[in-house]
Write a structure and sequence with these properties.
Elements: E1 7-9, H1 11-18, E2 23-26, H2 29-34, H3 39-53, E3 57-64, E4 67-70, H4 74-82, E5 87-89, H5 94-99, E6 104-106, H6 108-118, E7 122-124, H7 135-138, H8 143-150, E8 154-157, H9 166-175, E9 180-183, E10 202-204, H10 207-219, E11 226-229, H11 240-256, H12 264-275, H13 279-305
Parallel strand pairs: 1-4, 2-3, 2-7, 5-6, 7-8, 8-11, 9-10, 9-11
Antiparallel strand pairs: 3-4, 3-6
Bound molecules: pseudouridine-5'-monophosphate and manganese (II) ion.
Manganese (II) ion (MN) binds near residues 140, 142 and 264.
Length: about 300
């Protein structure tokens, strides 16, 4: 693994790198801010196990006492899951959290940064941030998209929730040269549903094709990330009109309450959870596990290509 004064590795990750085993990064915002306790810590552990079962080593990433932790112990996962003063950490928050020795749960953007510092190429999560609806007025565009524009990490996700403007999100990614790759899918998945009205740029059928595309991008000197959009398994997908109505309601409430800045996404995610009375939680858990499986398989193929 790459040495860096700010980085601390778990024993499992260090041993993996000595054996040249592929490592898969996992984010911690999903634990601290994305799911309720205790489902969050249970899911975090299960997702790590799915990565292991598929031949790679999991590295959940967070900021603890100002250190970037690459790979967390069960106690550390428990702490992130239970404590309610963990700061949501995106790119702009890292210098503050690290210099002031604080605790932070890393978003997609921050996890990509830390993974890159550690030399990890594959990162698995649920959904990415994106261009928010009415961004033409608010300019609310997730830092995740800028990170994808410049940081060489592949993000395996189930697309993005339609709390966002998925069309504008795709336009933004296109402008910045970020391939959005449908995994056995022509459509951009919308997290809870397998499809959206938007098409992906390219489709791959298996981990080998994905790995070849990723490696080719970087060998061409085209820096930046890629999105592997992997639809939620059919049996766990939610009914489209149902989730659409829920999201509309959440968006209206955010507007009424004048929610802004970094609170927008957590507010909307919390509302969706509340309005679905937890029926969305199971979908969320299953899609992350499904992403972990595909992400680990891609990491294995990427390691073999080296
Ligand atoms: N979307 C989800 N679940 C999540 C997030 C987004 O469906 O947990 C989290 C991720 O950590 C993502 C972050 O990186 O929210 C984006 O926040 P913002 O829009 O403030 O950049
Ligand atoms: Mn935002």
């Amino acid at each position: 693994m790459m040495k860096h004064a700010y980085l601390t590795y778990s024993k499992e990750v260090l041993e993996a790198s000595e054996k040249n085993m592929p490592v898969v990064a996992l984010e911690s915002t999903i634990i601290s801010h994305g799911m309720p306790y205790p489902q969050n810590v249970k899911t975090a552990k299960e997702v790590e196990d799915v990565v292991r079962k598929n031949g790679a080593v999991p590295a959940t990433i967070a900021i603890l006492n100002g250190k970037i932790k690459i790979g967390l112990s069960h106690e550390e996962l428990e702490f992130l899951a239970k404590s309610n003063d963990i700061i949501k950490a995106s790119r702009r928050d890292l210098p503050y959290l690290i210099s002031q020795k604080k605790n932070g749960a890393t978003t997609v953007a921050a996890t990509m940064i830390c993974a890159r510092m550690a030399g990890i190429e594959v990162f698995v999560t649920g959904g990415i941030g994106g261009v928010h609806r009415e961004a033409e007025n608010t300019m609310d565009i997730s830092a995740d998209l800028q990170e994808l524009a410049k940081t060489n990490v592949v993000v395996v996700c189930a697309g993005a929730k339609s709390i966002l403007d998925l069309g504008l999100t795709l336009e933004y990614l296109e402008t910045h040269g970020v391939p959005v790759i449908g995994y056995q899918s022509n459509s951009l998945p919308a997290f809870y549903t397998r499809t959206s009205p938007f098409e992906v740029n390219v489709r791959v059928e298996n981990p080998d094709e994905a790995a070849a595309l990723i490696r080719t991008k970087w060998e061409l000197g085209l820096d930046g990330g890629l999105v592997i959009a992997n639809p939620i398994p059919e049996e766990y997908a939610l009914e489209e009109n149902y989730i659409k109505a829920v999201i509309e309601k959440a968006l209206n409430e955010a507007k009424e309450k004048h929610i802004s800045g970094k609170n927008v996404t957590p507010f909307l995610l919390g509302k969706v959870k509340e309005l679905t009375e937890g029926s969305s939680l199971n979908a969320n858990i299953e899609l992350v596990k499904n992403n972990a499986k595909i992400g680990a398989q891609i990491a294995v193929r990427l390691a073999n290509q080296r």
